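Q: We require from you a single protein entry containing the residue sequence and its fold in token form, and nothing else.
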Amino acid sequence: MNRWYHQRTKDEDYFRAYAHLDVHQEMLSDEIRTKTYRLAILKNANRIRNKVVLDVGAGTGILSHFCVEAGARKVYAVEASAIAEQAKKVALANNAQDKISVINDLVENIELPEKVDVIVSEWMGYSLLFEGMLKSVIYARDKWLKEDGIILPSCAEIYLAPISYDEDYEERHNFWYSIKDKYGVSMDTIVPLAKQEAFKNVCLCQLTTENVIAPETCIYSLSIKQVCEADLKRIEQPFSLIAMGRALVHGFTLWFNVSFEICDGSNVLLSTSPFSPPTHWCQSVMYLKDPFNVEQDQVIKGNIKIVESEESDRCIDIQMEFSSDFNGHSVNGSNIFYLNSNFT
């Protein structure tokens, strides 16, 4: 199977998944996400009123309706999955059919009658870049956005921190040991596979502030107006993290923030941090096969790479190298974690 065919199949699976209502219900149930978008759009009413908007990956059309609420003259709501038919019905039910034009196609395929003043999109995936949808926003920006146009959100950052999470770590590894006590059948032989999967796949967790054991560091930041597709194929950044106290490091976590530039110069922030209210994105956790202890002010140094997966450009591989030395005792590690449809 060549990569082109494999990628086409992956894209078909991707858009088929977004044709189901449960995906959109999960996103709309995330009030932090949805209300932050609405706030940012309405605060930009002076830049949206009587303007033309392109909504990339419109889904059920909620962001398009926010733009109409902000006074948009016209909104092109582009959605490649079959949920576009529901978006048309939603526009009709809300008497917005004259303002919102739903286009059921890839944004890379469409032709519009005019350039747009605003692009709005909820393109972010787990660890920010999973699903690869930002590339579609970049394409739309380069082809359809006026030179003085705006993009919402405007900027994004990815953060890294070490974590300690005994409960989840032990549960993932010890569950199979408990089967015999529950049902009388030993499944201990599955434990090696469970560990193998846990140590190679990115896990999704709702962490708390107690899990984070060192101040986070920003490993990547981008402006949506300036980033190009080539920038996203490989991100590499050294890091240095300083432990806030004695702890057992079970792994590392990634999360992201996006910000919306407002016409008055301020910003509206959407954060998926453990220090912020939970969102459906959770945090991405990379568990280590061999946890290690750190003391107060102990430094963990390393290098992280986020690269486009060979399996699919909608998936990412996260390569980490780290080391730490304290009172003559040193630890180091090198791991590759996969963020694909097998996350847990």
